[in-house]
C-alpha cells in the first residue's frame, strides 16, 4: 500500500527553470506544483502557461507558446536524459509527443512480443491510436474529417526507416514479412530479416521498397530462390549493402542488373564456381565477405578476387567454406593489393600467404593494409600452418609497411608465452603495431 505521507517526487525548480526558460521568481507548493510570483494573476507554469497567450490568426492557440526555449532545444535536452521517452516528457505538449513518437517508430526495437502490435499500428488497426488521431482533428482540404485509419497509416508508415527483426523469433510467417514490407515500403531504408522463411510473397513486396539501402538476409533459415531475389533487387536503385541468405538455392542464371550504388556484398548459400565465373559482379564493390558457401572452391574464389580484387578495401573469408581448401585464400594479398582490412580463418591459409610471391612489394605505393584478424575454430593441427615467425619476418622485411593492428584468436593453438611469440610481439611493438587476442 502506498505511503501517502511520503513527499511527492519532483524534478526541482532549477530543472524546470532550465527546460522551460522561467526567469521570474518561482516557488513550489506542498503538492510539488511550480508557480510564478509577481503577476496580478498567479498561473501554474506548465498547465496554465497558455491561458493568456494571444490566439493565432485562425483563432487557434499555440500549445508551445508557454515554453520559453525553442521546441528543438527542449527536445534535445530531453533526449539527453536517462529515460527520454518517459510519460512525464511526452505529456508536456502534443508537439513533443509526436516528435518523440516519430523517433521511436523510425528505428523500432522489435521483439517477438511486440511485433504483432507494431504491425497493427502501422496498418491502422490499433483502436487506441485511432482514437488519438480522432482527437487530433485531422481534416482535409474540404474541412471534412478524414478516415482515421487512413490518417493513421499515413502518419506512421512514413516514419519507419529501419526494420531490424534479428531479435524476433517466428516460424515460417511469410505473411508478416510481406505485410511489414508493404506497409513501410515508402520510407524503409534498412531491413534485417529474422531467422525464418523469406518466400515468394516477401520477395514480391520487396520490389516496392524504392528507398531501401541495406538488405540483410543472412539469418534466413529456409531456402530462398536467388533468381527471384535478383529480380527483386533490380528494382532497388538506392541499395548499397546486400547480404545473401545462407540457405539460398543454387543459381543457374547469370544475367542480372546490379544496383549502381552497391558497395558491400556478403556471399552465402548456393554460390558455385559456375556462378563465380559467369556472373559479373559490379566494380563498385569495396567490401566483400564470404561465409556458408559449401559449393565454392578456391578456383571460384580466386576468379572473383581477380575480377574485383583491385577495388576491395575490406575482405572477409569466414568459416565454413569447406571446399576452398587449406591454402585456398593464400593469394588474397596478391589479388587484392588495396586491402585495408583482412579477416580470415586459419583453416584457409598457410605461411605462403605472407611470402614474397603473394605479399609482393608495391612500387607505386605502400601496401595500405592496416588490420589483420586471424580467426580459428580450434581444430587440431592448425597451429603449424602459420607461425609467429612468419609474421615477424614479413613485418621485419617491410612487406606490411602500414599495418597497425593484428588480432589473433585464442583458439589458434599457439603458445602465447613462447619465445617466438615474445619475439613477434617485440618486433611488432617496435613498428607501432598493436597485437591483441580475440
TrEMBL record:
Query: Which Gene3D superfamilies does the protein's record reference?
Result: Ribonuclease Inhibitor
InterPro entries xref list: LRR_dom_sf (IPR032675)
Q: Which domain of life is it from?
A: Eukaryota
Question: How is this protein named in the record?
Answer: Pfu1 protein
Amino acid at each position: 500500500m502506498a505511503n501517502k505521507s511520503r513527499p511527492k517526487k519532483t524534478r526541482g525548480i532549477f530543472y524546470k527553470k532550465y527546460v522551460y526558460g522561467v526567469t521570474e521568481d518561482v516557488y513550489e507548493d506542498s503538492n510539488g506544483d511550480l508557480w510564478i510570483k509577481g503577476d496580478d494573476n498567479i498561473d501554474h507554469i506548465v498547465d496554465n502557461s497558455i491561458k493568456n497567450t494571444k490566439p493565432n490568426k485562425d483563432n487557434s492557440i499555440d500549445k508551445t507558446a508557454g515554453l520559453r526555449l525553442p521546441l528543438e532545444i527542449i527536445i534535445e535536452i530531453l533526449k539527453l536524459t536517462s529515460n527520454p521517452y518517459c510519460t512525464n516528457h511526452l505529456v508536456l505538449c502534443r508537439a513533443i509527443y509526436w516528435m518523440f513518437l516519430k523517433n521511436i517508430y523510425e528505428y523500432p526495437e522489435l521483439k517477438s512480443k511486440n511485433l504483432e502490435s507494431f504491425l497493427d499500428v502501422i496498418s491502422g488497426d490499433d483502436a487506441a491510436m485511432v482514437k488519438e488521431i480522432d482527437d487530433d482533428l485531422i481534416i482535409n482540404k474540404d474541412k471534412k474529417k478524414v478516415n482515421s485509419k487512413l490518417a493513421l497509416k499515413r502518419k506512421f508508415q512514413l516514419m519507419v526507416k529501419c526494420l531490424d527483426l534479428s531479435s524476433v523469433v517466428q516460424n515460417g510467417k511469410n505473411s508478416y514479412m510481406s505485410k511489414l514490407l508493404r506497409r513501410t515500403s515508402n520510407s524503409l531504408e534498412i531491413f534485417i530479416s529474422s531467422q525464418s522463411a523469406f518466400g515468394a510473397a516477401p520477395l514480391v513486396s520487396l520490389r516496392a521498397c524504392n528507398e531501401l539501402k541495406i538488405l540483410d538476409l543472412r539469418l534466413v533459415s529456409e531456402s530462398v530462390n536467388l533468381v527471384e531475389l535478383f529480380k527483386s533487387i533490380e528494382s532497388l536503385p538506392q541499395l548499397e549493402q546486400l547480404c545473401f541468405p545462407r540457405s539460398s538455392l543454387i543459381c543457374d542464371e547469370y544475367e542480372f542488373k546490379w544496383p549502381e550504388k552497391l558497395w558491400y556484398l556478403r556471399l552465402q548459400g548456393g554460390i558455385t564456381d559456375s556462378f563465380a565465373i559467369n556472373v559479373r559482379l559490379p566494380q563498385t564493390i569495396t567490401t566483400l565477405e564470404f561465409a556458408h558457401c559449401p559449393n565454392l572452391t578456391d578456383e571460384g574464389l580466386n576468379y572473383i578476387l581477380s575480377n574485383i580484387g583491385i577495388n576491395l578495401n575490406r575482405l572477409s573469408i569466414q568459416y565454413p567454406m569447406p571446399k576452398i581448401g587449406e591454402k585456398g585464400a593464400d593469394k588474397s594479398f596478391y589479388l587484392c593489393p588495396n586491402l585495408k582490412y583482412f579477416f580470415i580463418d586459419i583453416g584457409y591459409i598457410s605461411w605462403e600467404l605472407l611470402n614474397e610471391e603473394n605479399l609482393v612489394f608495391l612500387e607505386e605505393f605502400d601496401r595500405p593494409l592496416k588490420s589483420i584478424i586471424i580467426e580459428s575454430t580450434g581444430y587440431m593441427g592448425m597451429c603449424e600452418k602459420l607461425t609467429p615467425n612468419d609474421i615477424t619476418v614479413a613485418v621485419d622485411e617491410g612487406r606490411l609497411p602500414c599495418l597497425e593492428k593484428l588480432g589473433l584468436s585464442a583458439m589458434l593453438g599457439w603458445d602465447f608465452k613462447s619465445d617466438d611469440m615474445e619475439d613477434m610481439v617485440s618486433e611488432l611493438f617496435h613498428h607501432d603495431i598493436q597485437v591483441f587476442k580475440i
